[in-house]
Amino acid sequence: MSTRAGIVVTGTEVLTGRIADRNGPWVSEQLLGLGVDVAHITVCGDRPDDLTAQLRFLVDEGVDLIVTTGGLGPTADDLTVPTVAAFCGRELRHDPDLESHITDILLRWRGIDGPLPEAAAAGVRKQAYVPEDARYIPPTGTAPGIAIARTDGLPAIIVLPGPPRELQAMWPAAVTTDAFASVTASLPVFSSETIRAYRLSEAELAETLRLAERDVAGFSALEITTCIRAGEIDMVTRFADDGRSPYAELLDLMTERHDGQIFSTDGSTVDDLVAAALTGRMIGTAESCTGGKIAARLTDRAGSSEYVAGGVVSYSNEVKTNVLGVPAAMIAEHGAVSEQVAEAMADGARRVLGTDIAVSTTGIAGPGGGSAEKPVGTVCFGVSVDGAPTRTLTIRFPGDRAIVRALTVTAAMHLILETVGSLASPDPS
Q1: CA–CA separation, 135 and 176 (whole Å)
Q2: What CATH homologous superfamily does 4-184 map to?
Q3: Distance (Å, rounded) from C-alpha 422 to C-alpha 414?
Q4: What per-residue confidence (pLDDT) applies to 112?
Q5: Which CATH architecture fits 191-268?
Q6: Minimal CA–CA distance to 274: which of 295, 252, 251?
Q7: Using one digit for the tens of pLDDT, what is the confidence trace for 385-399?
Q8: Could you report the per-residue pLDDT of 378-427, keeping only the tens digit for each?
Q9: What distance in Å separates the CA atoms of residue 193 and residue 247, rounded to the nearest whole number?
């Protein structure tokens, strides 16, 4: 029987959608990597009765481990620890060492010798209560985690803070607690491999997996999850030692059938590959419908100044003409959304920014502005490379404005990768 876990994400701000849940998926991924099957991810507000109901539901589902996130702060509505303690039938005990530890963190952050103001000190005291026979997980912010060992009738419970940075930093300590280790100690070691493809449809992938199920010996040892994001498909395969050979056969089948669509077999993202491909080169952008999103994507990584020079958001025709040098007559003849204009924008950006490469986008993201000839979702691309003909492309994307823009950015990244990948390596001299 597999080891199963449930995750409870607390916080009214998450429940109401003001903040997107980043913790549930992240914790789930970590647990899956450890061989723990995640049965449920639930979200509830900051009310004790609602959290208690979620805990009871997961216990009734027979999970071996519960991980909660959020509700560990110093304010009155942060009630996860007392609620979990009450659920487990344990009294809260003040831990002076923990209080001293949190106090030292706050004093260091505030740059003072002490003592803390009374309001802050009261919040620290609140956070320094630990359920009886539980262990605290040292905080990286001011909120400690809690580890409660499994007992008859109750699973192990790990209580972690809500801010993703704090939770992720505390995770290594959480998984080494006796409470956590007792649940996972006997689990086999699992491997996880990711294949990424672009412009591969779900139907095509499903057909390949049906063939694999028929032809790959030991296919049942593979746990496969697929996810579609902005035109890309991620296929994550999890397996124990007995799945290594079947996965190798599956990988061969995938690359044989979808070689032109698979761009990564080692988990590398298109962003990783673009950054590597641009080594020794500089790129610039000229964006209309994407409004700077490609430049933002390119510069989202540390060290991107080594290959990104800058960008021009040429949303208006005047900027296209006055900054990028797109002839006004060209816009009048072909329209702003045309491959001719996309080519001129890319060439202009490369010239103005002094780069080796430039990518451009001009399109109709919607909801209005489309026509029978150029419906909403029509986007024209240009990639200008020093010493080579400028490449242009038109794609019609489905969806609303946000989807069209997201698909456009992804397409631009792949267009950059394809273009740069076809070039000879730059002369290091």
Answers
A1: 12
A2: MoaB/Mog-like domain (3.40.980.10)
A3: 12
A4: 81
A5: 2-Layer Sandwich (3.30)
A6: 295
A7: 998 999 999 999 999
A8: 999 999 999 899 999 999 999 999 999 999 999 999 999 999 988 866 76
A9: 9
CATH 3.90.950.20 fits 271-421, yes or no: yes
Angle (CA) 305-310-312 rounded to 5° is: 165
Structure tokens belonging to residue 56: 């009871």
Helix (H) or strand (E) segment spanning residue 389 = none
How buried is 237 (Cβ within 10 angstroms: 0-12 exposed, 13-18 middle, 19+ buried)?
Answer: buried
Any idea where the domains of the chain sit in the sequence?
A: 4-184, 191-268, 271-421
Write the DSSP symbol of residue 163: S
Angstrom distance (rounded) from CA 91 to CA 110:
32
Lateral strand order in the sheet of 145-148: 37-44, 4-10, 65-69, 156-160, 145-148, 135-137
Q: What is the pTM assigned to this prediction?
A: 0.79
CA distances from 362 to 107, 146, 231, 289, 418 (A): 52, 52, 19, 5, 19
Evaluate whether 192 touches 238 at the Cβ level (below 8 Å): yes
Strand partners, 284: 310, 358
Q: Give the chain's radius of gyration (CA, Å).
A: 27
Are 357 and 346 a contacting pair, CB within 8 Å?
A: no
> Distance between CA atoms of 382 and 360, rounded to whole angstroms?
5
> Of 136, 111, 106, 109, whose CA–CA distance to 124 is shortest?
106
pLDDT one-digit tens code per residue, 154-189: 999 999 999 999 999 999 999 999 999 989 887 777
